[in-house]
Sequence to fold (341 residues):
Amino acid sequence: MAGNYDAFLLVSFGGPEKAEDVVPFLKRVSAGRGIPEQRLQAVAEHYYAAGGASPLPARCRELLALLKPHMDALSLPVYWGNRNWHPLLEDTLAELARAGARRVVAFVTSAYGGYSSCRQYLEDIASARAKVGPSAPEVDKLRLFYNHPGWVAAWAKSLSASLASLGDSAGASTEVISSTEVISSTEVIFSAHSVPVAAARSSPYEPHVLETARLVAASAGVASWQLAWQSRSGSPSQPWLGPDVTEVIAASKATSVVVVPIGFAIENMEVVHDLDVEAAQAASASGKRFARAECVSAYPEFVGMVAQLTRERTCAGEAKLALGADGPWPDTCPVGHCPRT
Fold:
């Protein structure tokens, strides 16, 4: 046991693993949001086209297997619970309670501040503990990691591999491009999940994503790049962060594009469909070569980061690592951080 912790808990979004679970999963995710049935069925078709399953559960199991030797060294058994599909958080916390765990350290697979990317996970953990009751273990969430050296290094490696696959580079200028102007034959587009503008204004989500993009580009030696957004799901009347990644691809004057989904640590349907299908189609329609950087959950740099963040919390004297001017995010999010809007 390290630092009075009894276990390590991986917390993720969740996803269906067979076709018959797709609609129940989508209904759970969208509960209370008033999304029409026809919209849910349209999204379900994305899953069916990909074989009826999300890649996320298999990638979570892979990550747990890679983390196990690191957690064994800390005498922390590994567990996994999701917000929206099996294994559900409340079931995993009940299992931990039966095993006698009283305090667990949790890694949430979201790097950034924001309601849906941080605060909602804390609320879901609290809700799951309440469902388990007095025997539920305390759960301490590890800090945000948008500027951690391991996160940046993993994405820089993934980006570099994608550029190499196109046999190109993004130029040597130090200018950061924030429009569709391109100064090389390959345009690098960082992508993250869009959120309502009102939610972005009340949280550090957008600056966190922008800082990751800046750090990754610098580490990979990429001079010109831009940030785009994807996977918008709200009402057309509500302003969301933009531009959309497909719009950026279509407007680009480059002959090839690389999309880097830095908003997602683990492969999931919003990457597989919104980028590998829709963004790729936008590139093809405008005569561009297309590559999508791989999500980094199996990269040694990412796995090492999760282990290092765990040691930060559980071992006295472990340094808190961060790149850039922001410094490491605090262990406990500030009061009022990332409110529901």
In short: The CA atoms of residues 321 and 327 lie 8 Å apart. Residues 171-183 have pLDDT under 50 and may be disordered. The longest strand covers residues 186-193.
